[in-house]
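Minutes, structural biology subgroup

Action item carried over from last meeting: produce the C-alpha cell record for Dihydrofolate reductase family protein (Dactylosporangium aurantiacum). EB confirmed the sequence was re-checked against the source entry. Recorded below for completeness.
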Amino acid sequence: MGKVVMYSSVSVDGFVADDNDQPGPLFDWLTSGDVPLDDSGALKVSQTSYDYTRPYWDQIGVTVVGRHVFDMTDGWDGTPPGGVDHVVVVTHRPAPEGWDPGAPFHFVDGVEAAVARAQELAGDRVVEVAAGDVGGQVLAAGLVDEVRMDVVPVVLGSGKRYFGSVDAQHLLEDPDAVIQGDRVLHLRYRVRR
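Output recorded by EB:
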C-alpha cells in the first residue's frame, strides 16, 4: 500500500489561502521558472524545483480533497488535476446534480473511509491529501505518513491554515528534504509514530 502524504504550498506563517480562499502568491513559484513541469507548458519552475517536484507528482495515484475545494474548483470539470488518476472527495453530500458518474471522482463520507478508498484505488502509489481542514483531520486520525510543504516567502497574516483546525500536538521527524528553489523552499517530513 502506498504512503499517505499531506501536501500544499504554504505561506511562511502557515496559511494555504487567505480569508477569501485565495492563494495569492502561493503558487507563483509554479510559473516563475523556465523548466516545464507538465505537458501543458503553463507550469514552469526552476530546475531544482522540477527535480524535486516532478518525481513526487509522478508517484501520486489519488488525491483526497474536501467538498469545499471540490466546489471551489467546479470539480476540475470532471478531470483530476495534475494527471492524477482519481480524486476522493470527503463529503456528507452526494455528487452534484448532473455529475458524470463515469468521472474518476469518488464521494466518501468521513476521512477514515476516504483514505481507505483512496488507498484501495492507489494501490502502491501515493495518496496525496490536500492540506487544510481535511488534511488536518487525516493527520489527527493518525493516517498521514509524510508532510510535504512548499514554503513560499510571503506572510498572509490570516486565512486557511495548513493543518486546518488541528488542536493537538503531532510530532514530525527531522526534515529529510530541504530544497531551495526559486521563491520556494521545499520541505519533507515523516510523521513520527
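Discussion: The mean pLDDT is 95.
Next step: EB to file the record with the rest of the batch.
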